[in-house]
């Protein structure tokens, strides 16, 4: 439709999200030049083989040179070091954004290195699959999903507008939010579910003998949904939990109290308590379905495809 | 292919599983007569409108009259009362089976009422969706899934063979297992995942103010998988937890210990502990995918369809 939105965009990190964004930008001609940067030579070679960008480097300073948008798509634990490396190489007017799943930590780690005249617009496209790496990306990943921006107070509106338009052009609906609030909402909708899925799959792994094989065999009873979530990228998720500690621990405390109450109801045979609880949770599913967030993905052995 | 396997089958209960079995049996001509029995007039009328059977009654004694197979597809809490009602109305040689998700409780509740000359073959087709009621069923539900039979020691082999053949003819692979072992395996692969999903969705429901709406809006981050599981039939699941108390409480204890360990790692910022754990759980997903239990269903607003 319209011409390129960006002259040069630098993607720092090229995993599931970075490579999906690269594909979507190429498909829609959103950037004249896509510079791809990643730490590992092997990942960079993979990105090159996939033809995801226009230039490739392991040096973030080289990638951001002349870029009007820098999008950090690396694990959260790498942010501070990346920002320190690129800070004084940023072009005046450059917008620095990211795709990380926590937002207060991102502002803490990036803002000290974003110079005057550049703009920090942290963002979080709420989309993903359990697959990781450049090859796992696909241009449609973002379509009909939400993206949350958490610009610090006083951020230039045109910088926010640029990032907003980018995500809208790849199919997302964009909201802005206070970073602390973002971390709370995602703590319950994403981080806690992942922690729980990782836990239960680990609990099952630790069972002795025959039962472990059977856990896999009979996983259709509910367990397989957890194995999918618990197959997500380990480094990414380690960093999420380390960087959203307060919100996750608070939600976990509430969860544990609620689980203990149901455990007690089971032990004492309190059928009414269980039934009432289970009735209530049905309603929230209806809301999810009505909000069209229920997921029309087909999960296959080869990854998620939209139906 | 072959002729009818059964002259008369009585389905006691006609929810998701019962109605799916009725559809599959009709489709493949497995029974000359399908007698459908359910407690509520409205459900019976729905089954009749859907044309699921050959006769319809709210009286289980009438349904089982002359049946060579009685398949109980009701919530577990209704089993003992159903068995007491039908026990002396069963035809000599009749096989009594079921589709319940726990097996020791089923033997406890049914065996006192199955007379000499009749045969008890408890079974559990490990298949389902989050939808319930006669209209939610579909003939393909069982295809490529496992069915577990737990016949008590000394059960006549031809009775076990009949139930085995029925499930095989609707597409399942059939295994036999000790009932206590079944309850342990399903405790971890199905019952605990459901309990946890019900809990976290309840925890999210209880959050105050704006955050509740946002939980639905941003559910694509992981939460929506839990809402699907937590939309399952409340009565059915109440009865499962009440009837598999020991195994569920044991697995829950292990889960809680493991969750507490991860919680501690988050609090103390122990990234290595988290990373190691998250690496390990990826492997079990690979096993699930290789076992073809990963689910090739398309989840849509209208229910699950096989892709």
Structure explained in plain terms:
- Two copies of one chain form a homodimer.
- In chain A, 49% of the residues lie in helices and 15% in strands.
- Chain A is of the alpha/beta class and 307 residues long.
- The first copy, chain A, is globular, with a radius of gyration of 21 Å.
- The first copy, chain A, has two domains: 6-177, NAD(P)-binding Rossmann-like Domain (Rossmann fold, 3-Layer(aba) Sandwich), CATH 3.40.50.720; 181-269, 6-phosphogluconate dehydrogenase C-terminal like domain (6-phosphogluconate dehydrogenase C-terminal fold), CATH 1.10.3660.10.
- In chain A, helix 7 crosses helix 9 and helix 7 packs across helix 11.
- In chain A, the strands form three sheets. The first copy, chain A, has a six-stranded parallel sheet with strand order 3-2-1-4-5-6, sandwiched between helices.
- Chain A is built from twelve helices and eleven strands.
- Chains A and B meet through helix 7, helix 8, helix 9, helix 10 and helix 11 of A and helix 7, helix 8, helix 9, helix 10 and helix 11 of B.
Mean pLDDT of chain A: 92
Main CATH class of the largest domain in chain A:
Alpha Beta
In sequence order, what are the helices and strands of chain A, one letter per element? EHEHEHEHEHEEEHEHHHHHHEE
Total beta-strand segments of chain A: 11
Note the overall shape of chain A.
Answer: globular
How far apart, in Å, are the first and last alpha carbons of chain A?
Answer: 25 Å
Identify the most extensive interface between protein chains: A-B, 103 and 103 residues
Quaternary state, please? homodimer
The total domain count of chain A is 2
Stated plainly, the CATH topology of the largest domain in chain A is called Rossmann fold
Structural class by secondary-structure content of chain A: alpha/beta
Helix content of chain A: 40-55%
Major beta sheet, strand line-up of chain A: 3-2-1-4-5-6
Radius of gyration of CA atoms of chain A, rounded to a whole number: 21 Å
**What is the level-2 CATH architecture name of the largest domain in chain A?**
3-Layer(aba) Sandwich
Find the CATH superfamily of the largest domain in chain A: NAD(P)-binding Rossmann-like Domain
Largest sheet of chain A: 6 strands, parallel
Number of helical segments of chain A? 12
> What is the percentage of strand-forming residues of chain A?
15-25%
Low-confidence stretches of chain A: 294-307
């Amino acid at each position: 439709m319209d011409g390129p939105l960006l002259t040069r965009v630098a993607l720092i990190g090229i995993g599931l999200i970075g490579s999906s964004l690269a594909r979507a930008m190429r498909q829609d001609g959103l950037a004249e030049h896509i510079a791809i940067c990643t730490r590992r030579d092997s990942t960079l070679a993979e990105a090159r083989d996939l033809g995801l960008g226009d230039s490739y480097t392991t040096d973030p300073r080289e990638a951001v040179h002349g870029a009007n948008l820098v999008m950090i798509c690396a694990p959260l634990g790498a942010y501070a070091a990346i920002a320190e490396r690129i800070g004084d190489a940023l072009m005046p007017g450059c917008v620095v954004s990211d795709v990380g799943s926590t937002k207060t930590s991102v502002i803490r780690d990036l803002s000290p290195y974003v110079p005057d005249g550049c703009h920090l617009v942290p963002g979080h496209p709420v989309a993903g699959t359990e697959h990781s790496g450049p090859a796992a990306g696909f241009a449609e990943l973002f379509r009909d999903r939400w993206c949350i921006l958490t610009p610090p107070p006083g951020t230039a509106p045109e910088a926010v507008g640029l990032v907003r338009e980018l995500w809208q052009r790849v199919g997302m609906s964009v909201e802005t939010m206070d970073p602390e609030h973002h971390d709370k909402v995602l703590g319950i909708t994403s981080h806690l579910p992942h922690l729980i899925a990782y836990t239960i799959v680990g609990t099952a792994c630790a069972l002795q003998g025959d039962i472990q094989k059977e856990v896999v065999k009979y996983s259709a009873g509910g367990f397989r949904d957890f194995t999918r979530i618990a197959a997500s990228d380990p480094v990414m998720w380690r960093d999420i939990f380390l960087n959203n500690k307060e919100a996750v621990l608070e939600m976990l405390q509430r969860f544990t109290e609620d689980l203990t109450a149901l455990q007690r109801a089971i032990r004492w045979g309190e059928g009414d308590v269980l039934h009432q609880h289970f009735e209530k949770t049905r309603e929230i599913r209806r809301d999810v379905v009505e909000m069209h967030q229920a997921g029309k993905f087909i999960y296959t052995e080869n990854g998620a495809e939209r139906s």
